[in-house]
Design a protein that fits this description.
The protein has 424 residues and is an alpha+beta fold. The protein contains 10 helices and 26 strands. The strands form 6 sheets. The chain has a 7-stranded antiparallel sheet. The chain has a 5-stranded antiparallel sheet with strand order 14-13-12-9-15. Strands 21-20-19-16-22 form a 5-stranded antiparallel sheet.
Amino acid sequence: MTLLLSALSVCGQNDYFVKTKGAKVVTRADGVKADRGVTAEEPQDFIAQNFRFYSLCDWKPGMKFMVMPEKYDLIVNTFCNASTGREVSNGKLRHHIMVYKGHTETDDGHANINFRCPDDGNDYYYQVPSGSFENYCGGKMGVPTLAYLGDVDVAREKLKGATLFTNGTVYYEDTELNGDGCEEVSVPKGTEVKVVAVGVGTRRFPVKLIVADSKGREFFQNVAISRTNSGMREDEFGGGNVHHTFKGAFELADEVGALAGEYAPYVNKTVYTKYRTTMQNASGDEVNIIRLSGFRIVQVRPKAGSKRVTMTLKSTKTGELYTKDVAIANESVIGDIDGQREDYYAFLFGEGDVWKRYNVSAAHRELIRQGRVAKGFTAAEVQLAKGKPRRKVKSGSGRMDWIYGNGQIVKFNKARRVIAVASF
């Protein structure tokens, strides 16, 4: 699906604008370096440590933004020229850098939030709609149209060249060198990528991360990291916006690697599914996986801040790759087999090649997957197909009947081969 970005999108004007597919960029207008605002007691989490959220109340002179109008902003102007007091079209200021200068209270009781624009050398202000600056600054709206470039600058320094893993499946490719088009592309979850460029995205999602996979294919995601001036609260980044958060889109390989050691014994294990389940295929689509499907675990990627891991599994039958989030520790067994239990490794997977382990005849495998039993089945094959019986009844002649809760009786001879399947 091809998406056409509106006038808010990137246009190759300066080096804050980056493109996939090798698009050229030129020198940007110089601005005042943004304050990164790292707190005195830095958390260990990479994002919290390097990308501090600034409410408008905490803005400091020198913080740098870019005018990134959305459709509504092209009708309702944001800024006034400080020299003339007249409104200026957001379309005219589109992609101009604004450097914060502080706020002032006017004689008529209004509050102005002031900026210097190094692109045209003019001063501008945004007039608070109503009330004092102190009353307004604690809200979520901030100054309309402005994308916070402090996050872009830090991301460029900290993330360019970094190795990441994809946490989502939907990303984008630019479709024109200097235009506004982009195309939605599917990427397998857990793909290892390298950050090749960092630039500006949109007001809400100001950091554009262009990454490349091992084959050199480039794609990008616009993400909000600190949420400074995004116009959204933290709780509004759930649901449809989660893939536009850094952690919803990517995970740092370094953070994953720090946790990966304890999961190393799982890598290269051969496993099979005990139950029907779902996984994501290489295109990011959710697909049904039948029971007793064989896989080799090729990667276990811990999820920072979670007790779950993302497993990449290769089908032993087709060679196709799949991913699934799995709980290694048993957090809960509440619910049925299709609920929480199946996400627990020990419930979902059996280890080894199930067919070799139980010496299953090739002719019997499809029937077993369907939960059916036929004459000639061994006891092990019956148990794979139907599970453990409710009870076993021996006869005097050495025969044995396995009785199941669905009213089915599986009859064995002395050699423990099925001779009949009956109902009662």
